[in-house]
Each structure stands twice: as C-alpha cells, then as structure tokens.
Amino acid sequence: MAWSIGCAYAENPASHAHWSYQGSTDPAHWADLDKANAACRLSQEQSPINIDVRAAKKAPLAALEFSYAAGTAEVINNGHTVQVNPAAGNTLKVGEDVGHLLQFHFHTPSEESVNGVRYPLVAHFVHKGFDGKLSVVALLFKEGRRNQALAPMFTALPTEGKLLALANMNPGELLPADHSYFKFMGSLTTPPCSDGVRWQVLKQTAEISKQQLSAFRKLYTMNARPIQPLNSRVVEVSD
Ligand SMILES: [Zn+2]
C-alpha cells in the first residue's frame, strides 16, 4: 500500500472521492460521495460497534497467534490517520486462518466502544488472509504511562503526506500479554466501508501518555467513525 494513497484502506485509489470526519464529506455523507461507498449505508454489518460486555456470548474462540517480528517500517500520514507499513513477514493465525499484517493505524477516540465508553485511542492491525478476506485486531489505549513501543513513531509523527522511515520496529511490542478478545463480523470503518471483515478487539488495553496522545491529536483531533448498529450480529468473547 503506497503512502500516497490518501486513504487508510484504499484498495483502488483511483475510485476514491474525498472524504472526511467533519463537514460536508463526513460519515453521514460517505455513501453519497461515490457509488463504491454504497455499503456505508446499505450493509447491515458495519463497523465500528459498541461492545456490550454482558451481552457478549462466551465461546471457545481460537487463540490469536501473532508472529510479529522486528523489521523496517514506514510511518505515513495519509490525511485520514497515521499508518505504519511494516516490512513483509508479520502474520496472524486464528484457527485455520492465516493473514499477513498489511499495516496498522490509529484513531482518536477509539472507534470501538466498550459498554458505551470510547477510549482515547485505538490501533487497528489490518491483516489480509490467503482467501483475500481482511482480519483486523483492535488494541484500545487508556491514558497512563508513556508507551515505549509507540515512542519511536509518536515522537516524530509525520505531517500530512510525509513519511517517517523506521529502521527497526517490532509491532509485537505493542501487544498486551493477554490476547483474549471479542469477535464479530464487521466492515472497514472508512470508505468504501466494505463488509466481510473479521474483527477481534483485545480485552486487555495498553497505555499511552497524555503527551503522546496530544502529539497525535495535533495531527488528528478526531478521526473516528460513529458507532454503527449491531443489527442481528452476535459478539463472541473468549471464555
Ligand atoms: Zn481503523
């Protein structure tokens, strides 16, 4: 995914109309901006959602088996978020499904909410499986201690259109120890809002300092899509 795409998830940049989080191209208008964005309005399984913890169905979910390792990475500011494109070779196995980590990026506040509460920040780790399906792991951040794993990028966050090259970054260092999670089907949270995305939201949160948050918010004060209806979906949780 090239840094110049200007869209966190763009598969086909040529078809993308300008969109934003506020103003006349905000989420309420995404479906009208481009025919390709029809799912933003019509799909019944859109993301993000609120996770009602008591309503989540306990299930023997497959473990999230992360094989992330240190390597080079590019940090890009694409006009919608700050996105990290690590070198190839990081994978996530969930049962029989294996996906390659394409990129991870951030939203403030968190797009997913838990019991109605949005966290200050979320990281979305986007994987693509051999079947072409996307599988996203969400890691919620609460305000607290300085996050050492984020420090190399959050001390030098690139401005829009700019790129920061990291010689050595291990996305695994961002992950908490406990990988139990909430699972549901959803969509991209940005146009074209394509559904069929497997979502896994980690129960354990990470911490980020007030200073680190404010560094991100200097670039993006708000880049979260509103909560979408759950409709008939069931959220499962590791038992
Ligand atoms: Zn995202």
Describe the fold and architecture.
With 239 residues, this protein is mainly beta. The protein has a single domain (3-238), classed as Carbonic Anhydrase II (Roll). Helices cover 9% and strands 36% of the residues. Strands 2, 3, 4, 5, 6, 7, 10, 11, 12, 13, 14, 15 and 16 form a 13-stranded mixed sheet that branches. β13 and β14 (195-202) form a beta hairpin. The termini are far apart. Mean pLDDT is 93; it is low at 1-15. Residues 8, 105, 107, 124, 189 line the site of zinc ion (ZN).
Short note summarizing the structure:
Belongs to the alpha-carbonic anhydrase family. The protein has helices at 30-33, 39-42, 151-154, 210-219; strands at residues 50-51, 57-59, 64-67, 71-77, 82-86, 91-94, 97-107, 113-114, 117-118, 121-129, 134-143, 163-169, 181-187, 195-202, 206-208, 236-238. It is mainly beta and 239 residues long.
What descriptors fit this protein?
239 residues; 13-stranded mixed β-sheet; 4 helices; 16 strands; globular; disordered N terminus; EC 4.2.1.1; Carbonic_anhydrase_a-class; CA_dom
SSE layout and pairing:
Layout: H1 30-33, H2 39-42, E1 50-51, E2 57-59, E3 64-67, E4 71-77, E5 82-86, E6 91-94, E7 97-107, E8 113-114, E9 117-118, E10 121-129, E11 134-143, H3 151-154, E12 163-169, E13 181-187, E14 195-202, E15 206-208, H4 210-219, E16 236-238
Parallel strand pairs: 1-8, 2-16, 11-14, 11-15
Antiparallel strand pairs: 3-6, 4-5, 4-12, 5-7, 6-7, 7-10, 8-9, 10-11, 13-14, 13-16
Bound molecules: zinc ion (ZN).
Helix and strand element order: HHEEEEEEEEEEEHEEEEHE
Q: So what's the CATH class?
A: Alpha Beta
Tell me the CATH topology: Carbonic Anhydrase II
Estimate the global geometry from the Cα principal axes: globular
List how many beta strands DSSP finds. Answer: 16
What is the helix fraction of residues, given as a range?
A: under 10%
Q: Which stretches are low in confidence, meaning pLDDT under 50 for 5 or more residues running?
A: 1-15
Mean pLDDT: 93
Name the CATH architecture: Roll
Count of distinct structural domains: 1
Oligomeric state as shown: single chain
Alpha carbon gap, first and last residue? 36 Å
Largest sheet: 13 strands, mixed
Distinct small molecules bound, one entry per kind = zinc ion
Number of helices: 4
Structural class: mainly beta
Strand content: 35-45%
- The CATH homologous superfamily is called Alpha carbonic anhydrase
Radius of gyration: 17 Å
